[in-house]
Design goal:
The structure is a homodimer.
Chain A lengths: L2 E5 L3 H13 L3 E5 L2 H10 L4 E5 L7 H10 L8 E5 L4 H10 L3 E4 L4 H14 L9 E3 L2 E4 L4 E4 L2 E3 L3 H12 L4 E2 L1 H9 L8 H16 L6 E4 L3 E4 L5
Parallel strand pairs in A: 1-2, 1-3, 3-4, 4-5
Antiparallel strand pairs in A: 6-7, 7-8, 8-9, 10-12, 11-12
Helix pairs in contact in A: 6-7, 6-8
The first copy, chain A, binds a DNA duplex through helix 6 and helix 8.
Chain lengths: 229, 229
DNA sequence: AGGCGCTGTCACTAAACCGTCACCATACTG
DNA sequence: CAGTATGGTGACGGTTTAGTGACAGCGCCT
């Protein structure tokens, strides 16, 4: 039983999908456009998003991009569902971060099978819970970071970067991995950009009394560790 | 860079797929039938399996079933690749445990994008295990070396060198072999350079109380051994 | 429109690291 | 035991890699 957000403007198709989902033991959440979808996502994360490419207002592919860019929604699988069956569209859709791409007209049973396949793969994903290491506390819900009670001010990217480090502490991450996990694998930015953000993050942490939390591993990348070396 | 097992009996398609994979930075492993595939899987698990439905002998769908039944191979993603485009086949394929289902004729670019999408889901895996010998501990994940709890500081090359020695302990390695395995077979450096790095590595280890761990075998090379001679 | 915060990139600096050499020590050879 | 081959060692210059400050572009808010 999974909650599935269905973003689809055509009522008849919306209905068809919802019925299919219900019949296969899922729980459909309907949204006729990207804005509604975003609002629903604000409240609660679904287990999967079924996304129409063509939508009134913001397009489905744009929505997909936004979902992939946001740390919070990054882990949610997306299945693109659209009339655009050409190769370029498929590649674009998948490159953007969709987990599967189904063309209309589609068979409800195939869709159900694909949903099942994607959900089966779904990993136990990153927690929404606050993380705390060495007196440093990060709360994804409130989007706040505190060092022994005192607030630490971070930009969005620094926040995501720190969140990633804290949920994957002690391990070394290459710049490529960080770009992949924090920026998203579809964007293209210089690897050195990571260095700069590391520096900004370090600056903010040091201002709060946390020295050497983020360490450089020459030739490999960076690591967050509470044990100083 | 992922190892991908391609199970496909038609040579021209096999070739097409392999070329596509190589071009997209993957490493194709070819198998013309299920039996060969099983043999290859015995030796080493690939990161993904591309599976043709119709094969001489045991069919692809049977192979998929076997892979899903075996604990060892259960986690490996499968993409079905076949001419059977009917709904029933798709559903069966996906129900069996395939992660995606692509019908022939397929576009190489779409295939590449789908492979990427499946691998993306799979990512956090295959972490290298720590090695420990005689109180000396090397962990590739954290990129740390400790001697009975105390940190050992090493440069990148020394780290790789020690890692190689620890994973190939008790065996003598010539300078040429070391250059090959630690430096990479394409670079050209003097053999004597190895000596210098051995010295640096020895220095770092001795500072942590590990004497004579790396032994010289005159005329042949070096060896890491916990039993002093 | 203007200000502001955030971001990605660049150029420059600082530091770590690497490969090589020259010279010394040691082991083997006859 | 002298001679030679092989490995050990300290130092050095060049190269690679990371740190840093500055800056222009962008979106957003007022």
């Amino acid at each position: 039983m999974a909650r599935i957000l269905v973003v689809e403007d055509e009522p008849s198709i919306q209905e068809l999908i919802s019925v299919t989902l219900t019949r296969t033991g899922h729980d459909p959440l309907r949204a006729p456009d990207a804005e509604t979808a975003l609002r629903l996502l604000q409240a609660e994360l679904p287990d999967l998003v079924l996304l129409d490419w063509m939508l009134p207002g913001q397009s489905g592919i744009d929505l997909a991009r936004r979902l992939r860019a946001d740390e919070r929604t990054r882990g949610v699988p997306i299945i693109m569902l659209t009339a655009r069956g050409d190769e370029q569209s498929k590649v674009t859709g998948l490159e953007t971060g969709a987990d599967d791409y189904v063309t209309k007209p589609f068979s409800p049973r195939e869709l159900a099978a694909r949903i099942k396949a994607v959900l089966r793969r779904q990993k136990p994903q990153a927690t929404e819970d606050p993380v705390e290491i060495d007196g440093l506390r990060l709360d994804p819900a409130t989007h706040r970071v505190t060092a022994r009670g005192q607030a630490v001010v971070l930009g969005p990217t620094e926040f995501r970067l720190l969140h990633f480090f804290m949920t994957h502490a002690e391990r070394v991450h290459s710049r490529a991995q960080l770009l992949d996990s924090v920026w998203g694998d579809h964007v293209f930015v210089e690897e050195r950009t990571v260095d700069v953000h590391i520096r900004r993050l370090r600056g903010a942490l040091e201002a709060s009394g946390h020295d050497a939390l983020i360490q450089t591993v020459r030739g490999s990348g960076y690591r967050l560790s509470c044990q100083k070396e």
